[in-house]
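User: Before I run my own analysis I want an independent prediction to cross-check against. Here's the chain; please return only the structure tokens and, at the end, one sentence I can use as a sanity check.
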Amino acid sequence: MKKELIQEFEKVFGDAEGVQVFFAPGRVNLIGEHTDYNGGHVFPCALTIGTYGAVRKRNDDKLRLYSMNFADLGIIESSLSDMRPKEETQWTAYPKGVIWTFEKNGYKLPSGIDLLLYGDIPNGSGLSSSASLEVLTGYMLKTLFGFDVSNKDLAVMGQYSENNYNGMNCGIMDQFASAMGKKDNAIFLDTATLEFEYAPIVLNGYKIVVTNSKVKHSLVNSEYNTRRKECEEALKQLQTVVDCKTLGDLSAEDYATHARVIADPTVRARATHAVCENIRTIKAVEALKKNDLKEFGQLMNASHVSLRDDYAVSCPEIDVLVDAAWKVEGVLGSRITGGGFGGCTVSIVADASIEEFKEEVAKEYKEKCGLECEFYVVEIGDGPREL
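Assistant: Structure tokens:
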């Protein structure tokens, strides 16, 4: 891959002198969806697919950015003085947002860069291509210019840039999973404190299978921000009767006692998901530690039902994929993963059932939705690195 990227860089930019090549992973979240901006727990892992970057420093302040995934757009040129938060809509808004955030934090770039990118995360799949690109950009800047920032800092700055440069009000999970990934481990992260532990994923005869619906409904950004506002509203009302900083602070008992204070049934349903999903995530990690994969799978299934009914972030195509997965013997659990309104499902499938799973799910999806899905039997990989 390194050789191919350097060859492509030479083709696009004329020569490849002084080029360095980097990688940052995408992620899949096993359980704990829409809890990261509610002060709850999440349980993602980094993947072996992600975003590659070939980069070199320039002698002026120009930024020349090129993506092999959007080759028809050619080289997009700007400069370090040309940063427009919330106005840029092309893919370059992600790396430029990270550069802008670095400079806001006192890490001023002494020169511009030439950057060629290639991502093998399917676009719009919900496997965090944007966070992968943000972490990649941060890791490249840190290495190229010798900035003293940790991988944890890269996650925080990646989230800040997406919130404030791109206008997407996401939580910390995606950037954290990409920046802090560890092979064969998921990350049990408390998003309120950023305390975390690595949890080995030992699946003994099972695999993680990601199914890409290949649909992405345009609701995702606007509705995501709406869900966040609804949760903030629920929290405000709960704080009038119970001492809590976030929805993630509440036990099932606390919430059951005080939920009635949330007058709007839709807002209450959103809070119900946030509180119960956090509790499910804690239980799921406990189940994994006890090697109770059956319970882990049941909690995944309950997570999907809650995301579909209480949080309303699923969609008909995803529900067909999940329903089809639940019918296959050897599937312990299946749920939507990512922001919602399309993208992917994640399933735990017995090795012996993987071919049947693919066949049955694809068949039902084609019959009911008229669409072809894609399957990835995923491996859990490390965080960002120079190749």
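Sanity check: The longest strand covers residues 41-57.
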